[in-house]
From TrEMBL:
Pfam families named among the record's database cross-references: Ldh_1_C, Ldh_1_N
Any one Gene Ontology molecular-function term assigned to this protein's record: L-malate dehydrogenase (NAD+) activity
Name the UniProt record assigns to this protein: Malate dehydrogenase, mitochondrial
Protein family according to the UniProt entry: Belongs to the LDH/MDH superfamily. MDH type 1 family.
Source organism of the structure: Glossina brevipalpis
Reaction(s) catalysed (UniProt annotation): (S)-malate + NAD(+) = oxaloacetate + NADH + H(+)
């Protein structure tokens, strides 16, 4: 085929995609106005991809209780309506809608404010290698993110599926190809590492759980998690031995769950809770609540890594500010250096995966 014809075909495709995105944005804004006029407190829609899985069911139950949510959309490629029926019996305000099969994926994504992706192969004893997980989960993330770009281009996208360090850069590439990438609206779930740090430190010093906050930066894998124990709030005096033990426990917490499940599964309940907290923050920010802070793996410029997890401020557009990194001692600075080297490789792998030619285009 002539290169001119190929170029014209590509230009036509881009124009058509832009037109469809414009229509989708207009419809979503119209729907949002109708929701706000009907009920200011219940104006948001959230879609969970992979809702029939263990994590998806847990998250669906938790999000059903959020008073800001008007519609909870549960999607899974498998026909398993039991979870959606069960969740729908909870007497909170959100309406539950269930979608099954890849042919209905687009319906679950239409005019939604937040898309949470839990689908994919989970870490187990047989699938602990994150490169293996990337190969298995890249196609799922690409499909869902690409369809979100077409049907809800303004949606906040939260990816839980591992490996987060590579799948967030991959998702950014996919969104860019659809002319729908907004770095403020793409998040990798890393808040669980912070919750684990808070819990383990409180246990070590004999404090009440929930009374201590520990900054955790870097990424969401053993080599990239960097707990900043010198900046606990309130300040604590931890011995060097305690710091080493706590850091190792935080970094290996995911493996501890896999071991406890005899290699047949990974964390579901704790990450479901962490995701609920993060989505609660997003929903509050969408409603205009100020002073909302959380932690996530996002496009960042606070280090030389193009994607990084650290504390950030949220508003109704997504990320409004990425806070400066906390002060660190020599040990923590060394951990950060190791983390950045590993992150750089993870990010490159994700971008390369996104740009692999599909079998049809080889």
């Amino acid at each position: 085929m002539s290169p001119y014809k190929l170029e014209n075909k590509e230009n036509s495709r881009i124009k058509k995609e832009k037109m469809l995105q414009s229509i989708a944005k207009a419809l979503c804004k119209f729907t949002a106005r109708r929701c706000i006029n009907t009920s200011a407190a219940l104006s948001h829609s959230l879609t969970i991809i992979g809702a029939s899985g263990g994590l998806g069911q847990c998250l669906s139950m938790l999000m059903k209780t959020n008073p800001r949510l008007k519609v909870l959309k549960m999607f899974d490629r498998r026909n398993n309506p039991a979870a959606s029926i069960d969740v729908s019996h909870i007497d909170s305000c959100a309406t539950v809608r269930y979608y099954v099969g890849n042919e209905n994926l687009h319906k679950s994504l239409q005019c939604t404010d937040i898309v949470v992706i839990t689908a994919g192969v989970a870490r187990t004893a047989k699938a602990k290698d994150r490169n293996v997980l990337l190969e298995a989960n890249a196609a799922i993330i690409s499909r869902v993110v690409g369809m979100t770009a077409q049907h809800s281009p303004n949606a906040m996208i939260v990816i839980i599926t591992n490996p987060v360090n590579s799948l967030i850069p991959l998702a950014a590439e996919v969104l860019s190809k659809h002319n729908a990438y907004d770095p403020k609206r793409l998040f990798g779930l890393s808040l669980l590492d912070t919750l684990r740090a808070n819990t383990f430190v409180a246990e070590t010093v004999g404090r009440e759980r929930g009374s201590i906050e520990v900054p955790v930066i870097g990424g969401h894998s053993k080599d990239t998690i960097v707990p900043i124990l010198t900046q606990c709030e309130p300040p604590l005096c931890l011995s060097a031995e305690n710091k080493i033990a706590i850091c190792e426990r935080i970094k290996n917490a995911g493996d501890a769950v896999i071991k406890a499940k005899e290699g047949k599964g990974s964390a579901q309940l704790s990450i479901g809770y962490a995701t609920k907290l993060f989505c609660d923050s997003l929903l509050a920010a969408l409603d205009g609540v100020t002073g909302i802070f959380s932690t996530a793996f996002v496009a960042s410029n606070v280090t030389n890594a193009s994607f990084f997890s650290s504390k950030l401020r949220l508003d109704n557009e997504g990320v409004s500010e990425i806070l400066k990194l906390p002060p660190m001692d020599c040990v923590e600075k060394n951990m950060l250096e190791i983390s950045l080297k590993s992150l750089e490789e993870d990010i490159k792998i994700g971008i390369a995966q996104a740009n692999k030619p599909s079998p049809k285009t080889k």
